[in-house]
């Protein structure tokens, strides 16, 4: 028998066969989608039942993916967390989220002059409270709601409101590494005299007041977090953009002083640019409102009305799911999608030695009423071995990601969006499997 080349060891053959397996499964998923026939889905299901990858039969059957003939040539951009993957659900909802706004409506700057946040649309506020009650992820009682143009604007409003305007020095803003990559630039881009980025919360040792951004689940690594500095002059902003059932078990109703949420990551409507803050202290809520008044004289009423309708549809879908014949709720649907994506990603990563992913424990989700997994909106991928700059390495394979450096961490890590279109995501999985050979 001819000798195998030294390079082609048994281990290599095993890895190759795993990669081919993953690639084959992905191709079957894709072909099944393209044909859109039950026959193909049955064939696909037979294959995945035999494989290590067990994926619910709903899979990507009605995927928005079109053409994957790009091979290795096209650029796959997973740098940003653009939540386009939820588009299919909303298309299926048809007119349930359609609103009509006549020309005479929403003319005034004011929504509710009696409220602290005078530009907050009452209908939007009502649906925010209802959704938190349905999901159980936040206490709304005794809270002031401040609406913002995305939670991005509310982060700045919070920094403005929490800083002492008479202090001789700007207050330090910290967050634990790896932190959301926008915090440093948001804190510093206007060179404010009120607040200043001071880096990693773990190593922060300056005396005096500080603001700590606590992101949970965390962007980029998906872990559940608590404040880390814990000194008595600390002011906390809890950024809970990802505290929703599709990403993490809802184990308690958050009950903090200042909490931020956004439709961008909860329902996927990033383009609507709507976020909200739940604020305990009346004076802080007033100052945040003032910031938004100075900044944009309020927040688009049209967007708030649209957001109210979307949140209402989500809450309705949760309540209807339990009634007979009710459709799958938005969160059940998105949980399953995230579950499938994480299974595919882990299978691709496990088919070789080049990459690794964080592990997460599961927990009981009070909303789903079952043990559920942590399946973050971003994959915090590590390049193993000699690859020191994971972002450049993947860029060499035409996969655009965000380097760990931008999160204050090692360049051996990259952040990869898990929320892109099925098409992009599947191309990425396919390419990752090929690279591992
Ligand atoms: C942790 C975190 N906070 C805030 C934001 C900003 O979201 P928005 O689209 O609501 O401005 C993001 C967006 O990616 C995020 O990841």
UniProtKB/TrEMBL annotation:
Pfam families: Alliinase_C. Its cofactor is pyridoxal 5'-phosphate. The keyword DNA damage does not apply. GO terms for biological process: amino acid metabolic process. GO terms for molecular function: carbon-sulfur lyase activity; transaminase activity. Residues 76-434 form the Alliinase C-terminal domain. Keywords: Aminotransferase, Pyridoxal phosphate, Signal, Transferase. The keyword Nucleus does not apply. Residues 1-19 form the signal peptide. SUPFAM superfamilies: PLP-dependent transferases. Gene3D superfamilies: Aspartate Aminotransferase, domain 1, EGF-like, alliinase, Type I PLP-dependent aspartate aminotransferase-like (Major domain). InterPro entries: Alliinase_C, Alliinase_N_sf, Ethylene_sulfur-biosynth, PyrdxlP-dep_Trfase, PyrdxlP-dep_Trfase_major, PyrdxlP-dep_Trfase_small. Belongs to the alliinase family. Homodimer. This is Alliinase C-terminal domain-containing protein. It comes from Pisum sativum.
